[in-house]
Amino acid sequence: MRLEYSREAITDLKRLRAFIAEHNPTAASRISSELKQGVQSLTSHPKLGHGVLQAPDPETIRDLVLGKYIVRYLLLQERVVVLRVWHHLEEER
User: Fold this and answer.
1) Which of 52, 68, 78, 82 registers the highest number of CB atoms within 10 A of its CB?
2) What's the CA angle centered on 86, arms 85 and 92, to 5 degrees?
């Protein structure tokens, strides 16, 4: 499986890292690495997340919970597309 990030997901990751770095730069690096590793695991285990019930097709639009963060992704035949990333205390994206 090939892994891709939407423009929105890249913006989300930059926003989250900047917010965390304001308070704790070390934590920002650690959390960023953990998110990247967790997302990378989707290439070998694409159904690791659970289907989004309110989505038109819960089998293809899924959420992966990584600690306090939620990664919404689209599962296609040959690729996984990360759509959005947010902290669980934020509103759903």
Assistant:
1) 82
2) 105
Quote the pTM value: 0.92
Contacts of 38 (CB under 8 A, 6+ apart): 64, 66, 71
Site of tokens 């689209």: 74
Is residue 91's pLDDT more than 90? no
| Residue type present at position 75 | L
Mean pLDDT of 79-89: 96
